[in-house]
Specification:
Layout (H helix, E strand, L loop, with lengths): L1 H44 L17 E4 L4 E3 L8 E5 L5 H18 L4 E6 L6 H11 L5 E3 L4 H6 L3 E2 L1 E5 L5 E5 L15 H10 L8 E2 L4 E2 L7 H6 L17
Parallel strand pairs: 3-4, 4-5, 8-9
Antiparallel strand pairs: 1-2, 1-5, 3-7, 6-10, 7-8
């Protein structure tokens, strides 16, 4: 009797473990599917976090034309400090920062710093960018990133969004222009000025990143069918059309 009880008890324990293992497999299967789904979405959008350049990384080169048709590349400015400003004349946040960015570009341009604007919005024609740049007196070239190819390479998300490259071609600062919280404000802390002062003095940038504020970059749709029905995403406070819709 005792032997039969032990064997029966062993069988019960075995069944319990088998049930636990099956439940664990089901849970892991669901988790794996969730991870796969998230990875698929991230890959489809071209914005996986692993692809975003980190501070100290070499920023990828580009070949982009300005509004006059002149070609520019990052490698052309090797050995110089370069400020890349992802901008959009459609975005109130970008427009709101332009006056101060223009002021900083003029002041630091005299110190040898190169400023380049990059417009990656697929919705904005070149002529509209040119008219706006002339109207507000942008003192640096604005490059058209057709198909948002370069924005995807560096995972740029918003306008304005700043990337500062040091003399070694490495990313030294990435993020917001300053600490404003509304499009029409002037920030009390200018992250770009602080970063440029440090680089020009041969110091390490104290705050190399700051969350970028502004409108989302309107990326080109993946197909013609998407293009006909594509809408604008909501950006931030103070957003007005045609920057985005609520």
């Amino acid at each position: 009797m005792e032997l039969r009880y032990i064997e029966k008890n062993k069988g019960g324990q075995r069944r319990k473990w088998e049930m636990r293992l099956k439940a664990a497999h089901r849970t892991l299967g669901k988790q794996a599917l969730a991870v796969l789904f998230i990875a698929t979405i991230a890959t489809a959008s071209g914005l996986t976090r692993a692809e975003a350049p980190q501070i100290g990384d070499k920023l990828p080169d580009f070949q982009l034309q300005d509004l006059a048709g002149k070609s520019h590349s990052l490698s052309k400015y090797a050995g110089k400090i370069v400020v890349l400003n992802f901008c959009s004349q459609e975005c109130p946040w970008s427009r709101g920062a332009d006056a101060k960015i223009n002021e900083v570009a003029r002041a630091y341009g005299e110190k040898g710093v190169v400023f380049l604007g990059i417009d990656s919005h697929y919705t904005t024609p070149t002529e509209a960018i040119k008219a706006y740049a002339e109207k507000v007196g942008v003192p640096y070239p604005i490059l058209k990133d057709s198909g948002n190819v370069y924005a995807d390479k560096v995972s740029a998300q918003r306008t304005p969004e700043i990337y500062i490259v040091d003399r070694q071609g490495q990313l030294a600062y990435h993020g917001a222009f300053d600490n404003r919280t509304q499009p029409g404000q002037v920030g009390e802390v200018n992250y770009v000025v602080d970063a440029l002062d440090a680089l020009l003095a041969g110091r390490e940038v104290a705050k190399p990143t700051a969350a970028a504020w502004g409108c989302t970059i309107k990326r080109a749709p993946k197909s013609e069918s998407q293009q006909t029905s594509a809408g604008h995403k909501t950006c931030g406070p103070g957003c007005t059309k045609p920057c985005c819709t609520s």
